[in-house]
Amino acid sequence: MTRKIIIDTDTGSDDAVAIMMCLRDPGVEVLALTTVSGNVPLEQATLNCLMSVEVAVGKENHPPVYMGADRPLYRERVHARNVHGNDGMADCDLIHPSIKPVEGVKACDAIIDLVKQYPDEIELAVIGPVTNVALAMMKDPETMKHVKCIWTMGTTGFGRGNTTPVSEFNVYADAEAYKVMMDFGVHVYVGGYDLCTSDNAWFDADTKELLDSGTKAARFAVESNEMLAKFCEAIGGERRIDLPDAVSLSPMLWSDVIEKSVDCVSYVCTENLPTYGQVIFYDGVTLAAMGPGFDGKIYGKEKPNCTVIYKVNSEKYKSRLAKLLMER
Asked: Closest by alpha carbon to 250, among 36, 28, 12?
């Protein structure tokens, strides 16, 4: 039976690659995509999502796209236009979708309706701020308990943050929502920012291979990430395209790419500004709380609530992603 997926995205240039990767992989069925404010405002994220879908699978028989939250649960909006461009896609005039989002249905309601239709089958692929998912959980917790599992690009993993020293953008953009999701009780597979900062990035040889293939999807993937490549070069001295969303969803598609992972108990920091958006993972090593009066719970949890994936096989991941993008 083909696995059923909902992709929740704040579509910037790395989201676009992850979306095309999932839509072109025969092992999963993308039932819907939902959009959220994050890398760019909601309206632009939706246009970018529609364009990515259209490039990946064409104008006909594509999954529906639903617009969601245009702001975090409680805080002011933050965006990442300095990284991805004003349109989130390198400002290369690539975004002219002819398909439209579904009108009259909010993303959180679409998620709830699909989970009701397919209880215990749907996997959520969450690659932006998790506001839509949190809203669905808060609105209909009974139904959302029947989500099979969640795959998220979020947190720093076990590394350094990309927004503050201790926080990653998707969590920082709405940490309260991330806390709702992580504490909800559905198991979460976490791909942190540390996954994308090694050999998993695209380098010049990788982008040349993609462009030489001549396919629309490969060209779109490379061109939409041009500003990200320049940003990475400016801050790191090396031209590269980090693709956190695609890397983090690759274990969802191909379990054999996982080389290291660990079950953890998580704690999402939301109270103090210096640590806002930090996600602390307890992986079973010493914890000071295990002293007199210890009640067997870590951060209020009796057992691990997530699996943190912190190493993938870059050769398998990159070659499979390239193959999907270069297919005509």
From this structure: 28
Residue 302 confidence (pLDDT): 82
pLDDT band at 51 (very low <50, low <70, confident <90, very high): very high
Cα separation, 174 vs 300, whole angstroms: 21
Q: Scan for tokens 């790395």, then name that residue.
A: 14
Average pLDDT over all residues of the chain: 94
Strand partners, 30: 5
Cα–Cα distance measured from residue 268 to residue 279, given in angstroms and rounded to the nearest whole number: 4
Query: From the candidates 8, 10, 14, 194, which is the catalytic residue?
Result: 10
Nearest by Cα to 171 from 122, 134, 141: 134
Residue 288's pLDDT band, with cuts at 50, 70 and 90, is low
- Count of helices and strands (H, E) across the chain: 13, 9
Tens digits of per-residue pLDDT, 234-258?
887 788 899 999 999 999 999 999 9
Residue 256: phi, psi to the nearest 5? -75, -5
175 has pLDDT over 80 = yes
CB 326 within 8 A of CB 213: yes
Report yes or no: 10 and 40 within 8 Å, Cβ to Cβ. Answer: yes
The helix (H) or strand (E) run that includes residue 307 is: strand 306-312
Q: Give all strands of the β-sheet with 122-126 in edge-to-edge order.
A: 65-67, 28-35, 3-9, 122-126, 149-153, 188-191, 306-312, 258-268, 279-282
Q: Tell me what pLDDT residue 235 has.
A: 80
Q: Please choose, from the candidates 136, 131, 8, the residue with its C-alpha nearest in 3D space to the C-alpha of residue 75.
A: 131
Buried b / exposed e over 14-28, threshold 16 CB at 10 Å, is bbbbbbbbbbbbeeb
- Annotated catalytic residue 10: yes
> Residue 320's CB: how many other CB atoms inside 10 A?
17
More reliable by pLDDT, 197 or 262: 262
